[in-house]
Amino acid sequence: MASLPEGKRGKPGLGAQPARLRMFRTTAFKLSMVYLAVFTIFAGFLILYIASNTAHLVSIQIREAVDLELKALEAQYRLGGIRRLTRVIERRSRRPGASLYLVTNSAGERIVGNVEALPASVLADGDTTMRPIPYARLGGELDDPEPHLALARVFQLSGGYTVMVGRDMGERERFISIIQRSLLLTAGMMVVLGMASWLFVSRRVMKRIDSVADTSRQIMAGDLSGRLEVTGTGDEFDRLALSLNGMLVRIERLMSGLKEVSDNIAHDLKTPLTRMRNRAETALAQSGEDAEYRDALQETIEDADQLIRTFNALLMIARVEAGSSTAEFAEVDAVELIRDVCELYEPLADDAGVGFSLNAKGTILIKANRELLSQALANLLDNAIKYCSQSEGEGEIQVSANADAGTVTISVADNGPGIPEADRERVTERFVRLEASRSKPGAGLGLSLVTAVAKLHGGRFELDDNDPGLKASLILPAKGGSVGSGPV
Amino acid sequence: MVKVAPAVSAPDTAGCITQPAVLSCTGRPPAAQSVYTEPFVDHMQPARSRNPSRPAIVINMRILVIEDDREAANYLVKALGEAGHVADQANDGDTGYNLALNGSYDVLVVDRMLPNRDGLSVIAGLRDEGDTTPTLILSALGQVDDRVKGLRAGGDDYLPKPYAFSELLARIEVLARRNAPQEGNTVYTVADLELNRLARTVKRGDQTIVLQPREFRLLEYLMKNAGTVVTRTMLLENVWDYHFDPQTNVIDVHISRLRSKIDKDFDKTLLHTVRGAGYVIRDDG
Q: Is any Cβ of chain B less than 8 angstroms from the Cβ of A390?
C-alpha cells in the first residue's frame, strides 16, 4: 500500500530531507496514525461486544427451543407411551430444520430419528443436562469434513429406550465466523482508508506549506512584492495567507516609504548642505572683516536651522506613518481643537489680508492625537494663508467641521490659486512642490504629514476643487459618534 | 540662587566642586566669543559686559550638565558660563546622579541617553530621594510621546536635540525661576502694568486694557517670567499647549497684537523683542 511517487516531489524541503522521510515527519501523518489506532480499537471493542452478546443470545434460544421440544415430546409419551412418541418423532424428524431427534432401543439401535451417528458414550453415560454433542445427520453429505455439533439432552426411558433431543449449533458458529470476517474486513478497510486520507491530506498540506516556504524564502531574499497563494476556499490556510499577506503589504509600504525618504533626503537635503559647506569654505578663504565672518556664520546657522526643521518634519512623518503615536490617542473635541488652531492662525490671516471664517458648532468627539491633528490642521491653514495672500483679489478661508454617519470631516477651503487636478495626488508625497510654490518657503512636507496623520487616525485626506481655490478635507472616523451634550 | 548686582566683576567660583576627570569647573567666562553668533550674544552676555540693555538683575545659577558627549557638554558649560552661570558637567548617569544628589544645583540639564544609567532613571531616582531640583531633559528623540515619557519620569521641561543655545538658556532661566516669589502672586506687576490673575483684568497706569482670553494667557506667562527671555517655542508650548513647529512665525503676530494693546499708547515700552531668542517683558527703569 501507499507507495509514494518518489522523485516526483522534486522540491527539496528545509534541511533537504528525502521526500519520503518528510511525509512521515508531518503532523498529518502523526494525526492519521493516532486516529487510525483509536478507531481500530473502538471498532474492535464494538464488534466483539456485539458478537459475544449475539452468540450468547443464540445459545439461549437453542436451549429454549430444545426444552420446548422436550416438553411437547414428554406430553406425547405420557399420552401414548413409546409407540406414540416414536410416531411423533418420526414425523417431526422428516421436517426440515435444525432440530435433531434420536430414539434407540436397549441394544443401542436406532428406532427412529434423523441422527446418523453419535459417540456411543453420549447415550450411555446417564447425563441428562444440556450439553454440546458431536453428531452426524442422517442423509447428510458423507464427505462433509466438518464435524457437526449440537446442543442436546439425553433421557433414558423405561424398556431400555434412550431418547435424544437437540438442536444444531451451526447457526451460532456461522454467526461467529461472520462477525470475525467483518471485523477483519473493517480493520483492513480502516487501515487502507486511513492511509489514503493521510496521503491525501499530507500531500495537500505539504503542497501549501511548500508554497508558503518558497514564497517566504523569496521574500527573505529581498523581493517584498511576493505574496502567499490564496486558493479562495476560505480554509485555515487561506486565512493564514490573508493575514500574512496583510502584514507583507504593510511591511512593503513601510519599506518603500523608507526608501522614498532616503532617496528624497539624498536629493533635497544635499543642496542646502552643499550651500552651507561652500559658504564656510568661501568665508575661510577670504581674509575679511569680522562682520563678514559673522554674516557668513549667521547664514550658516539659518541654513542649519532649516535643515533641522526639515529633518524633524521627515522623522515626524516617518514616525506617524509607522503608527507609533497611537498610544497617545485620547478622546478630543474636534470643534474645540479646530477653534484653538484657528485662533492661533487668525491674526496671521488678518495680517495677510485674508478673510477667515470658522463654521463648527457643538461638540464632535473623536479619538485622536490632539498634537498631531492640530499640527495637520496648522499645516493646512498655513498653506491656505500662504496661497490666498499671493492671489489677486480678496482672500477668503473657510474652516468647517461636520459630523455625519460615521465620519467627521474637517475642511479648509480657500479661494487661492488651487491645485490642478492632475497634481493633487502628487502634492501629498514627500518633497513634492509644484512649480508655482517654488518661490515660497517650505520643504514640501506639510501635506505629507497631513496625509500621514489622516491615515494614523484611520481616515483619509482629500483635495478638491473649491471653484475657485482648493478645498482640503480631513475625513476621520467618528469613534465615539457625534455627541450633542456632555457625558451622561 | 544668588542675585548679583551688575557691578560684580566675575561669577562666583566658590561653589565649584573639584572632582577628577568628569568635572570641569568653569567659573570664569572665557575671553573668546567666537563660538557664538551675533543674535545670541545679546541674550547670553551677563549684564556687566557690553550689554547695557540687559536687566539690572542677573540670576547667577548653579547648573549641572549630565551629558555623555564631552564636546557638547564642554560647549554647554562654557556657554552657560558666558551667560553668567556656573556649570558643572558629568559624563555618565551614575556620576550625574551622585553629583545632583550631593551638590546643591538650581537646575539640572540631563541627556536622555547616558552610559551606565539613562537620563530618565537618574531623574526618577532623584525624585524618589525627594530632590525636586528643576530638570530639563535633552534628547535626540524629539517626538511627542518621548516628551510625555520624559515629563512623566519627573522632568520639568524637554528640549529635543539639536537645539539653539538661546532656547536652552531661556528654558533654564525660566525653570530656575519656578519658585520665584512672583509665581504665587495674584497680581503680577511690571512697572505700571498690572495683571490680576483672579479678576482676569489688566491695567496700565489707571487705564484698563481689554484682552482676549488667549492674549491674557500670553501676557500672564510673559509677566510671570518678567525679566527673563521666553522663546517662541516656549510661548507656543505654555500658552497654546502645542509642541510642534509652525512653519510661519504665528507667535510674532500675536505678540505684535498684544504689544499694540499694552505698549502702543504709552511712553515706556515693556514688551521687548530679543533678537534671535524671543521676547521679554521688563521694566528698563
A: no
